[in-house]
């Protein structure tokens, strides 16, 4: 092999290595994009049910292991059907996106916010007592009540809170939070109720 052909071969190998590095970068970017798509709600950008369930399992294990408190909040927009019926589904979607942004502003980075379905949201509050969860949720309720939403005007939301017990499954915890939420709606909406 001549010196020239050796240099040529070396140059081709370097080019091939660079091509493989670029291909690897593209694969990693695609993998990240797929992970985001599979874990977030397309409309709101919040966690979807699957990711919320996965995160609940992790946070519950942490709470049990380190003996810390963990609470869950269920939120439902009051009379949301009227938004869709009056302003159309497009405005309803925009409203849900705005609500999602409001939730992100109030809750901590360590809190887990997910869209459970329709106009229902779940918020997981690690290392949070039920009293603190109530206080935080009241702030959110008030913030939503006082905000004037574009095209929709004023809206309210109802909330149910429960503390996660050591042997709770997500279904059991949601069941209790849902009872509290139902209580809030039965007592006039725009309220926060607790079910221990």
Sheet-strand content, in percent, reads: 15-25%
- Number-wise, the strands total 5
In order across it, which strands form the biggest sheet?
Answer: 2-3-1-4-5
Unreliable stretches (pLDDT < 50, length at least 5) are none
* Major β-sheet profile: 5 strands, mixed
CATH architecture of the largest domain: 2-Layer Sandwich
Cα end-to-end separation = 80 Å
Q: How many structural domains does the protein architecture include?
A: 2
Write the layout of secondary structure elements.
Blueprint: H1 3-39, H2 49-66, E1 70-77, H3 80-87, H4 89-106, E2 112-117, E3 120-126, H5 130-146, E4 157-163, H6 170-186, E5 192-194
Parallel strand pairs: 4-5
Antiparallel strand pairs: 1-3, 1-4, 2-3
Brief rundown of the structure:
This protein is α+β, with helices and mostly antiparallel strands and 196 residues long. The protein has helices at residues 3-39, 49-66, 80-87, 89-106, 130-146, 170-186, and strands spanning 70-77, 112-117, 120-126, 157-163, 192-194. The protein is built from six helices and five strands, in the order ααβααββαβαβ.
């Amino acid at each position: 092999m001549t010196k020239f052909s050796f240099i040529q071969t070396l140059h081709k190998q370097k080019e091939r290595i660079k091509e493989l590095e670029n291909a690897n970068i593209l694969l990693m970017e695609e993998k990240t994009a797929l992970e985001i798509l599979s874990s977030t709600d397309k409309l709101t950008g919040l966690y979807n049910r699957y990711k919320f369930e996965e995160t609940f399992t992790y946070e519950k294990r942490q709470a049990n292991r380190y003996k810390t408190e963990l609470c869950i909040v269920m939120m439902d927009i009051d009379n949301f059907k009227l938004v869709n019926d009056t302003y159309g589904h497009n405005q309803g979607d925009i409203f849900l996106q705005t609500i999602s942004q409001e939730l992100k502003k109030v809750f901590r980075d360590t809190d887990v916010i997910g869209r459970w379905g329709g106009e229902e949201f779940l918020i997981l509050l690690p290392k949070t007592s039920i009293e603190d969860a109530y206080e935080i949720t009241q702030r959110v309720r008030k913030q939503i009540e006082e905000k004037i939403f574009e095209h929709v005007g004023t809206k309210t939301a109802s909330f149910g809170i429960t503390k996660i017990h050591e042997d709770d499954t997500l279904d059991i915890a949601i069941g209790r939070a849902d009872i509290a939420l139902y209580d809030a709606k039965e007592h006039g909406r725009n309220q926060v109720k607790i079910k221990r």
